Amino acid sequence: MHMRNDNLSAPQAIYRKDYVAPGFWVDTVEMGLDLGLEQTYVATRMTLRRNPDSTEKDIVLFGDGLKTLQLRLNGVNLKKSQYSIQGETMRIPDAPDDVVLEIETLIQPVKNTALSGLYASAGNLITQCEAEGFRRITWFPDRPDVMAKYTVLLRADKKAFPVLLSNGNLIEEGDLGDGRHYAKWEDPFFKPSYLFAIVAGKLVCQEETFRLQDGRDALLQVWVEPGNLDKTDHAMQSLKKSIRWDEERFGLELDLDRFMIVATGDFNMGAMENKGLNIFNTKYVLANPSIATDIDYAGIESVVGHEYFHNWTGNRVTCRDWFQLSLKEGLTVFRDQEFSADLVGTATGRAVKRIEDVRVLRQVQFSEDAGPMAHPVRPDSFVEINNFYTVTIYEKGSEVVRMYYTLLGHDGFRKGMDLYFARHDGQAVECDDFRAAMADAGGRDLTQFERWYSQAGTPRVHASAVYNADEKTYALTLTQSCPATPGQAEKLPFHIPVTVGLLGADGRDLPLHTDGAQAGQTSVVLELTEASQTFVFRDVAEEPVPSLLRNFSAPVVLHFDYSDAQLAHLLAHDSDPFNRWEAGQRLATRRLVKLTQAVQAGEALALDEMFLEALRNTLNDTTLDPAFRELVLTLPSELVIAEEFDEVDPQAIHTARQYARAAISDALRGDLLTAYENNLTPGAYSPDAEPAAKRALKNLALSYLADWPQQATFELALTQFDEAENMTDRLAALHALVNFKGDPKLKKAADKALAQFYKKFAKEALVVDKWFMLQAVAETTDVARVRELMQHPAFTLNNPNRARSLTFSFCNANPSQFHAPDGSGYALWAELVIALNKINPQVAARLARSMDRWKKYSPALQQKMKAALEKVAGTKKLSKDVAEVVTKALA
Ligand code: ARG
Ligand code: ZN
């Protein structure tokens, strides 16, 4: 029997409301794979059992791009008349209640450029099955609510594939005599097919046994390509910290005797939590001081944590269907954020992490939530699930989980988690089940809280206050609304926790007397549940400055009519470090908006002394964590400023922000030099928070100083570049050199540094990515220069990291050049999306998202953007992935 199934049908949405339980459960899966790069033969034997509770009567299997050799049901070959195939779906009607299905398929890993299913990477074989990659290996009820026990037998040539890995425990291995060998793996836990994984090839590992809290020893391994063993230590340390943290904070133990991490240079996303065999993008594993920056080190720690934490939140309790994706992703992001914050430990350290996370949320998620791809945390429909691994599902999902934490408190949240596992361990459940566990454990009615899952869009909260000096009352009125999003014109009020404090004239917190506040309390969580509510504070001795939405207690945009003086007061004194930073950002945003308008009107630009003084005071306040000072001194990004405008003018925003940077550099020159010199970190490199914070502030100072076009600052950057003993300092110096504003003669020296950097690191793929990215976002890099860089021998669209380093960085992070008035950036974008569509639909669809907000630009730009979108939309053989993104953008 020979048959192929190709999906040629038009993109069609599927709906959450159409969920039907599977007609059959799968109890066991036994797989045998004869591995080869050109061709891999897959034999699958599964036992199925009718689900009497389902309205679905057929056996329904999914397959994608498979060559099917054999289909046997209870030992008998299936005749063509006994099943039907439509698109990816095979239906077998009239099956008995207990079935053994035997299926043989052939797949071609080297031809799999989509990197979903089984694919080749540097001569090795790797799988990625989430969300729907398993169906590219064999026919299967490939949906997350079908959980089965897997046994996997791998056979392969010994020389080409000396290492053979799969989920769970290695139960047997041996020689097959003919230059081939085998390994048999058994995963003792029931799991959905998206957690299936195999890895085969030439890999080496760093390993260690680690004593778990319950006394068991677990074998931990980090597998990499030969030559990279000097870069695995940080990942291993991070893994051990993750295991310990989950034991201590949530009482959750590693449930396997063996836990493996594998790094591959070809990966669509960050990493994948396959049971016992996590597969990672090299970007989130490989590090040593000479190739990785402080940010890379922090990223590795959090992603290693994230994937490890999925073992409970995702694997032991999984999702009923993909609409529930945030059940595992939002919760696991919350857990990794808390992990990173706990590791730093200090209060400002936690706040620094919080600020960094909120910055991402605002810059990327708020924008998504205001565009054509806006969707609820629990979507109601999608065309391609891979398009829904979004900042809304992940980061907003995490904010939603954080609100339970804020509402229930530390211990209440932990009780909710315990109840969630007590109820649902081993099950595939819904977001509502998590909410119910939180409500029941906390004894709270969280019915209205459900709207955070069902309604898209970023809520607006308008605050206003009246102080009554005679009665000593302070009445705070909070009013909420939420803009319309696709398919959701009207929104109902959300249940919003708003953490509030009141500052006196001396900058100290006033004691709070209001409903729900205990004696001596200086922060209170107000619960806004109606469209508008007034909260009254009593015994307020003086008119306070309100500190609202402390620690960013809800993912909303908060308006309050602060005066500059009030903001400066908050920036100088708020006991909530998040709101100190926030006050500085508000001051800066106001000015950047005005400056942008001045640029557009051709007026003279100026920055006021009051603002500069506030920045100077923060910069020079050595009692503050350098990481915190670095965040306050960093101006809102061009993308964040853009959100303040109905019609975005990218060049004007850029000019305004650059002007502000130069003015800050000019006014604070001496202070910046001092900060530079006081934050040197001599001695051996450590990625720990303290030295990393110093480097961050020092390098921010350097980047400001480089806006001062003097030979002296150029020399400072050049010396740092030449003498750097770690990538953080080297890369920061190179950034400063490449973006230097001074004498054009210095450009030669900068070019030389760029060339040196490339030569030194040409063999380190992750560093070459940095080299491309740095140039992609440089302000002088225009479309023509990007095209030139695309001709560089090291550039390729076939590798996701490399494609992203140049093209995504340019389209998403260099707005003033990407939005060139002649539309050349959009033409480049269309070419790239079309080219990537043929290679890797998931990556193509990500790039397609760069055009999401096209309706926010001037009519002239809009027209060019629309033409580019239409060009892509009209392309033949468009993947579902890209089609969904451009169709929604054009709708
Ligand atoms: N579950 C993975 C994580 O968040 C992400 C995998 C997504 N992969 C995909 N192809 N959509 O850790
Ligand atoms: Zn995840």
Automatic annotation (TrEMBL):
Protein name: Aminopeptidase N
SUPFAM superfamilies to which the protein is assigned, alphabetical: Leukotriene A4 hydrolase N-terminal domain, Metalloproteases ('zincins'), catalytic domain
Keywords, in A-Z order: Aminopeptidase, Hydrolase, Metal-binding, Metalloprotease, Protease, Zinc
InterPro entries: Aminopeptidase_N-like_N, Aminopeptidase_N-like_N_sf, PepN_Ig-like_sf, Peptidase_M1, Peptidase_M1_dom, Peptidase_M1_pepN, Peptidase_M1_pepN_C, Peptidase_M1_pepN_C_sf
Family: Belongs to the peptidase M1 family.
One Pfam family linked to the record: Peptidase_M1
Organism: Undibacterium squillarum
Annotated GO MF terms: aminopeptidase activity
Domain Aminopeptidase N-like N-terminal: 91-195
Reaction catalysis annotation: Release of an N-terminal amino acid, Xaa-|-Yaa- from a peptide, amide or arylamide. Xaa is preferably Ala, but may be most amino acids including Pro (slow action). When a terminal hydrophobic residue is followed by a prolyl residue, the two may be released as an intact Xaa-Pro dipeptide
Domain Peptidase M1 membrane alanine aminopeptidase stretches: 235-452
